[in-house]
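Continuing the batch. This is chain 6 of the set; chains 1 through 5 are on the previous pages. Same settings as before, nothing changed between runs. Recording input and output for traceability.
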Amino acid sequence: MKFRKILLWTIGLIITLIAAVYQKMTGPTYPKKETVTLNGKQYNLKLLRSHGGNDDADIILNIGDKSVKANLFWKPYPPVAEDDWTKVTFTNAQKDGKSVKQAKLPHQPPAGKLMYYIALTDRNETKYLNKENPVIIRFKGKVPAYILIPHIIFMFAAMFLANVSGLFAAFNMPQYKRYTGITLLLITAGGMILGPAVQKYAFLEYWAGVPYGWDLTDNKLLIAFIAWFIAFLINRKKENRMSVITASLITIIIFSIPHSMFGSELNRETGKIIQGIVLFF
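Output for chain 6:
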């Protein structure tokens, strides 16, 4: 019995780590990776797609070759017909003791977005990064660490315990009822309480999901909360392993969806923040 518990906890942790890494790396705010060869040397670059704070966004290229010339071209997103590309020349700089190239994108209001591409010229030719499919970067406000860190810890713990609860229920381990209640508490604290606080600091709104909009992050959280709330209520009266297994599967699926898809976006015309598709009530 003890070995089975350890095995199920281990499997739950592995599932959680895989889902968390997949969600982060496939999300639209994860840096876009590009590989380019300049003067016979290959460089692996990361292009920023999210920036928090009140300052400009630093676009850093790990290219130490000072003979390489680099220019950044940007315009607001979504663009309108009269928008022209603004050119910014990269300068040679030092970061963490290494020679890099640095350019800045101008600060935008929370949920404001810019699109950009890069031109690199070595001794032979000019190469373009993402000219046909520009990188989109979203700006956000700075979230205090005392809110952001507990939010991340609670949500990771909720994902982990959701997997463990489902596994224990699947193998008819009696502890699943207790874990179901703890999972609900973690989702409530990390998501339904701290989540809106994070959203407010980052995008000036406490809630951008149903019934106000289709912010996918908020709606995923709402679905998970409802699933575990139902499972908790059902198991208070009578053991029902299937409700917990179902809630666990729902949590795995929704938290595997790339983070920040259909996220908050600033409407340039109205100055209001929208969430991809807006519901009108």
